[in-house]
């Protein structure tokens, strides 16, 4: 039968002796009636047997066994898949994150009680804390890049209860890009804090290509030294947070008056993007308040405790007035590797993304479960609530309307 070996010990060949398969493979043949996979395997086997006769004829022999659909798969589908992975590989990685990374240990949430007509003694008691005879001193320390508007809101919100504002500015971004001394150029706008301000500068090392978190860590060490210059002492309160992570003033007033508060307490902030129109969630947690300990307290921006106080303020990320400020931060901050394509920095694209509430870097949510990732996919829903926002923002709504609901358009400068 045709599938059996012939008398000469070779495979049966239905082709004529001058067939290309016969030329290449001797008595082996690629039988045209079997499926494509067997045809390809037989061709490859033929090539292994007759390796000394490698030629274009052998390649033609292989191709005869491949049908048109296989051509499409090899030359169209595979390159398309590779290109798709190149474009969306980061999305694929973030979506699959739950497979290799577990959620961090949950915080112990401390309920937050507040009303303007309730006495401080009662509020401290509701939290399980005692009341002090006099309030602690409070130091607010930040690393500054270019967030003039948000810094104004922050300092106006905290002003009544801050003993010393401490600000460190560098002439370099975390990514090693030279930058102007923005605060120094706008210092006149902050005369209201001048008597309580400790301002310091640090020169950048301008090491491009280095991990941005190295430069960031060095600047935070320098901020530790600036705090000592500012006069911080044991049991003073120290606020550790980025400029755009703003504790509410009543939160800081509570902590400075109450006794027996945790040594390190994280603050759970409402998490906004672009303005107070786009509420992402209530899970911003990196801001913290410390009862200062000489030789132990180090300025940092990572988890340092399991205790967290609920509803303690606002985190307004990428909340800029000008499109140019968005572009600057996208290139300058520690996660600048997220700018994978140059068109991400196109001003028209950035404006569309802002008004839509989408992601500037076209990324999926950074979550630890598939449920949370899927639940947060797509643009952030618009919020039309302007209740419980920093008072200075509402009192100066005309100047800061870009931060309020319904005002997504940004200035180009």
UniProtKB/TrEMBL annotation:
Q: Which GO terms describe its molecular function?
A: beta-1,4-mannosylglycoprotein 4-beta-N-acetylglucosaminyltransferase activity
GO BP of this protein: N-acetylglucosamine metabolic process
Which key words tag this protein in UniProt?
Membrane, Transferase, Transmembrane, Transmembrane helix
Membrane-spanning segments: 68-87
A single Pfam family it belongs to is Glyco_transf_17
Any one cellular-component term (Gene Ontology): membrane
The superkingdom listed in its UniProt entry is: Eukaryota
Full protein name: Glycosyl transferase, family 17
Q: What is the lineage of its organism?
A: Eukaryota, Viridiplantae, Streptophyta, Embryophyta, Tracheophyta
